[in-house]
Amino acid sequence: MDKQTVKLGLMGFGTVGTGVVRIIQAHQEDLQKQTGLGIEIKRILVQDAEKTRSIPSMNSVLTTNASDLLDDPEIDVIVEVIGGISPAREYILAALERGKHVVTANKDLMALHGGEILQKAQEKGCDVYYEASVAGGIPILRALVEGFSSDRITKMMGIVNGTTNYILTKMSQDGADYSDVLKEAQALGYAEADPTSDVEGYDAARKMAILATLGFRVPMKLEDVDVKGISGVTKEDIAYGKKLGYEVKLLGLARRDGEAIEVSVQPTMVAKSHPLASVNGVFNAVYVHGEAVGETMFYGPGAGELPTATAVVSDLVTVVKNMKLGVNGRGMVAPYKEKILKDDKQKLSKYFLRIVVADKRGVLAQITQLLADKNISLEQVLQQPYNNGEQAEIIIVTHLASKGDMDEVLQGMEELEIVSEVKSCYRVEGGEQA
Ligand SMILES: NC(=O)C1=CN([C@@H]2O[C@H](COP(=O)(O)OP(=O)(O)OC[C@H]3O[C@@H](n4cnc5c(N)ncnc54)[C@H](OP(=O)(O)O)[C@@H]3O)[C@@H](O)[C@H]2O)C=CC1
Ligand SMILES: N[C@@H](CC=O)C(=O)O
Ligand code: NA
């Protein structure tokens, strides 16, 4: 290879794009020493060329025309940090068609169209790297693909959405109000353009689909992930959780028993003794259990300008090193295992239930009978007066139960005359047996 400089087309100059420019500018010498080549940002694609930018020195390379990047033969690598499906998908496919390598932070796209994009890259001998798409600055995809290549992963648990972890932490530590904290997370640049995907768990589900595909080497689809967000989590749930030894976290779970797999994202009571319980604020963490290695955990900032940009620029370094060695497009391994999904009777977990009942003799016995009928035993029970003593609130933590059995128990509870409301039901993870 006879070039001295790799030319880059940057698509997107928002939170992450700005970070990418800052890191390339600040670390130019280090990047050159590591790759042997200079890195030049030749064009930046934006939506609004008139907007005031925090790095005005780049104004001269801004364009609103994607073909200024895609059709420029001097541009070797496209970095896509626009987000969303369209036009990001079309731009990435067009870049690969023209033999350009791609680095992206786009989990929406990789979770939904990763198969198509990686296949096109392989056909064209191009690289596609997407480390920033999961857990921002934590090098977790690299760890799964390279670090665990010799092992068989059995379980991954992840706090993989910074916005919701920031909200839950502020609710738990400061008693803050949900909607005020969401506004703060948006102002700090953590939230997606439409924060519904953060709070309803879709962003975390996309990340878990990517983690499960790479970790279990099966072609997981987004629709294979059970999803529930944090909009129903209340301060009362958080307070009762604390009292019984748990923190509420939006937890992604990917678990393999034998060859059968389950992947979910839901608010979960995480035992305080587990390291995931103390992952706070915008921080993310991914716990990985491998058959040979045992327990490992990866921790770091999951969102924000510079942390996310480090993952993007490190991917860029890999692409440039591959260019020097002439080995682009050879590092990818397509998922090669058959996908076998668990049914609800195979999904085992402990549960935390909060139920409002009539304050009468024998009520607790009726509730516990429903659980006993399914062979579900109890680990903790707490009964408190509710509604000025007119009703009672029962909080139960069970031992292991299947999701199928628990769904039937919950339906049975709703039908009992003495039950006013099943207020909440959470999975419990991180303690003994979980
Ligand atoms: N923010 C974070 O902490 C993290 C973000 N990500 C992912 O990184 C990606 C970028 O996120 P982020 O930087 O926060 O997003 P922003 O909304 O801050 O920036 C988006 C950029 O893309 C440009 N853009 C949007 N639509 C178009 C279009 N149709 N054509 C051309 N340019 C367009 C915008 O232009 P203009 O400036 O003119 O409006 C803006 O510069 C997303 O995929 C996100 O999920 C991943 C990890 C963390
Ligand atoms: N909105 C996302 C950004 C990073 O992926 C989050 O909050 O984690
Ligand atoms: Na990452």
Automatic annotation (TrEMBL):
NADPH binds at residue 107. Keywords: Amino-acid biosynthesis, Metal-binding, Methionine biosynthesis, NAD, NADP, Oxidoreductase, Sodium, Threonine biosynthesis. The active site is at 207 (proton donor). It is an enzyme of class 1 (oxidoreductase). Residues 352-427 form the ACT domain. Pfam families: ACT, Homoserine_dh, NAD_binding_3. One of its GO terms (biological process) is threonine biosynthetic process. It catalyses: L-homoserine + NADP(+) = L-aspartate 4-semialdehyde + NADPH + H(+). This is Homoserine dehydrogenase. It comes from Brevibacillus aydinogluensis.
